[in-house]
Specification:
Number of domains of chain A: 1
CATH superfamily of chain A: Metal-dependent hydrolases
CATH superfamily of the domain at 75-255 in chain B: Metal-dependent hydrolases
Mean pLDDT of chain B: 97
Bound molecules: zinc ion
Order of helices and strands of chain A: EHEHEEHEHHEHEHEHEHH
Mean pLDDT of chain A: 97
Shape of chain A: globular
Radius of gyration of chain A: 17 Å
Number of strands of chain B: 8
CATH topology of chain A: TIM Barrel
Helix content of chain A: 40-55%
Oligomer: heterodimer
CATH architecture of chain A: Alpha-Beta Barrel
Strand content of chain B: 15-25%
Shape of chain B: globular
Number of helices of chain A: 10
Structural class of chain B: alpha/beta
Largest interface: A-B, 36 and 36 residues
Distance between the termini of chain B: 11 Å
Low-confidence stretches of chain A: none
Order of helices and strands of chain B: EHEHEHEHEHEHEHEHH
Strand order of the largest sheet of chain B: 1-2-3-4-5-6-7-8
Chain lengths: ~260, ~260
């Protein structure tokens, strides 16, 4: 299985049972995960983005046991952020980047975001966009961030047809027709970490083709078992299950590898 | 053995309570849920009139008719209507099949209007489930926090109370009720944030924790994960997943002749 949504280092607001990389990797392995795309919790609040990305790449190499794939962070509100994109691609040889517009404070109709997508297309980087990290109701009182408003994406993607976009943690806010429209607007996939409701994946499949759904756990902030059990709660059959847990994600990274 | 404290007739299509519960049971089967507790009807309201909560309880009673071996129900009542709520407890619990009460967001539960309702439910050995949340974005006017529930618990130290959602913001919720041994937490209806169950077992011990899902708005998967994914002893897992709820309900189930 490929998990497209894990994070390393420290969640800023509490220690997590699996926030030491070897423990996380051991748990992923026990669950049958063979590859996991890792961002860094440090990306949320740190401004030394290259420091964050360098540690992330190093951690994946030394403690990843061949399983962790680093996706660096880019914060387009910082001066010279384009250099971080270049380094993710050329220095760290990353296959993608992970964005946190909620914590970094920009909207998706900002010109910087369009420029970022253009650069990502040029370097054939997958762009993961984290819509939120936690339920807005439980956030720390001094750090209240709003979920990313994804409504500008349909227009932005019209101008960036070659972008490969993965929305993480999207289902609390991107629902119904808006979700369907977004899936139709371009090469956009969605992880299942925040999908709720009984038979949640079955419900998602009524709104987007299963080829656009990816196994993502949001571990270690969420219990890994949540995403695993969702595969059991929905009646998927072996073909669709394999697509969601392996093939869709590997197709994404193959089409983007240089 | 998994017993689910917190289920609703929602999240599936179906025009009638019977259609809905039949579908929900298919998912329960997939996830190995043996018994389920349902409350509230097909359409909810924050401040239900007596007619409204009676209708909702009728829907739950209807849903249970073909599932009385597997599904139980709590009566939805409101401290905005104390007399009518007491009558509803008599109708649905004393003289009917339901085995607990559900209090939602009509009035904060520290209010003394609740006292008569709590005393009546306790006299019938009915379970008492109070919704609670600490919302950083602001609670509804009548929406309780676990601190409100702690105040209620202090006035009724011998009555067992259930702190629904653990207050959502569980780091606050667990602290708010930990000093009140008569309060248990319901673990359904908030995100499966890791470390929650470990903290709950550490602070409350495994016997004051009740697994529940809050389906159909939530999935069984995300809510079961808090128990199955936690680093806690297997004995604690068994208590939380079903034994604690069974122990709590057994006296009233026995009185109703329900085998459990
Ligand atoms: Zn509920």
């Amino acid at each position: 299985m490929i998990d497209v949504n894990v994070s390393l280092s420290r969640w800023p607001f509490r220690r997590l049972p699996d926030d030491e990389t070897p423990r996380l990797v051991a748990r992923l392995k026990r669950a049958g995960v063979t590859q996991a795309i890792a961002g860094s919790f440090d990306a949320l609040l740190h401004k030394d983005v290259e420091g964050v990305n360098r540690r992330l790449a190093q951690e994946c190499r030394t403690h990843g046991d061949g399983l962790l794939v680093p996706f660096g962070c880019v914060n387009p509100t910082l001066p010279d952020w384009q250099e971080d994109v270049r380094r993710c691609h050329e220095v760290h040889r990353m296959r993608g980047i992970r964005l946190h517009p909620d914590y970094h404070g920009y909207t998706l109709d900002a010109p910087e975001f369009a420029e970022l997508l253009t650069l990502a297309i040029k370097h054939q980087l997958i762009v993961q966009l984290s819509v939120m990290m936690e339920d807005e109701r439980t956030q720390h009182p001094l750090v209240q961030v709003q979920a990313v408003d994804t409504s500008p994406l349909v227009d932005v993607l019209a101008d960036h047809a070659d972008a490969t976009l993965v929305l993480l943690n999207s289902q609390r806010t991107v629902r119904g027709e808006a979700l369907t429209r977004l899936a139709e607007a371009g090469n956009v996939s969605f992880d299942i970490a925040m999908q709720e409701s009984v038979g949640g994946i079955e419900k998602l499949m009524k709104l987007v083709p299963h080829k656009r759904l990816l196994f993502g756990s949001h571990a270690p902030l969420f219990y890994l078992e949540s995403a695993l059990l969702k595969l059991q709660e929905s009646d998927l059959g072996e073909t669709i299950r394999r697509a969601i847990t392996v093939e869709n994600a590997s197709r994404l990274s193959n089409s983007n590898s240089t | 053995m998994i017993w689910d404290l917190h289920c609703h007739l929602s999240g599936v299509d179906g025009r009638t309570p019977d259609e809905r519960i039949a579908q929900l049971m298919e998912y329960a089967d997939r996830m190995g849920i043996e018994r389920l507790v349902f409350f509230m009807g097909m359409q909810w309201s924050h401040e239900p009139s007596p007619d409204d909560f009676r209708r909702q309880n009728d829907e739950v009673i209807q849903a249970l008719t073909h599932w009385h071996d597997r599904a139980f129900g709590f009566a939805y009542v409101s401290p905005q209507f104390v007399e009518e709520s007491l009558a509803e407890i008599a109708r649905c619990i004393e003289n009917g099949p339901l085995v607990g009460i559900k209090l939602w967001v009509a009035k904060r539960c520290r209010d003394e209007a609740l006292d008569a309702i709590i005393e009546r439910a306790a006299a019938l050995k009915a379970a008492i489930f109070q919704h609670t949340w600490f919302k950083g974005t602001g609670n509804l006017p009548g929406e309780s926090t676990p601190v409100d529930l702690a105040a209620l618990a202090a006035r009724h130290p011998t009555v067992r109370l259930i702190c629904g959602h653990t207050g959502g913001d569980w780091e606050r919720g667990i602290r708010a009720i930990r000093g009140h041994a008569n309060v248990s937490i319901g673990t359904g209806g908030f995100d499966p944030t890791a470390g929650m169950m470990e903290m709950a077992v550490r602070e409350l011990g495994p016997r004051r924790i009740l697994y529940g899902s809050d389906i159909g708005g939530r999935s069984f998967a995300s809510q079961l994960a808090k128990v199955t994914g936690a680093d806690i002893p297997d004995e604690a897992r068994r208590l939380i997943l079903g034994q604690n709820l069974r122990r709590m309900l057994l006296p009233i189930l026995r009185e109703k002749g329900i085998d459990a």
